[in-house]
MmcQ/YjbR family DNA-binding protein
Amino acid sequence: MGEELYEAVTGYCENFLGSVREYPFGESAGVYKVAGKMFALLAEDSQPPRLSVKLDPEEGLALRAEYPDHVLPGYHLNKRHWNTIVLDGTLARDELLTLLRQSYDLVIAGLPERRRPPAPDH
């Protein structure tokens, strides 16, 4: 299940959201950026992989309460805004993609208008 979700996450980020994947922390952590700002971090060497996304603080807390072993405070990130999700199938593919889009949208909203890319279709 982890590999299937990994492929869904990477495909969504690269193809739909048009982001750039970089490895500033070494080859085991793919960082997805839009307009130079991170919206997702994928710990590729974890088994199962782990995905960190930026969420509204209240939504992040609600997810952590609902999935305490699968949605964790952001690993090495601002724990108020960032959440790390274990890609073991507990959260469904569609829910993960929705969370990725929310993270992307939050990061875009924080950019000056001149730096915002055209929005991908919903």
User: Anything to note?
Assistant: Residues 73 and 83 are 5 Å apart (CA to CA).
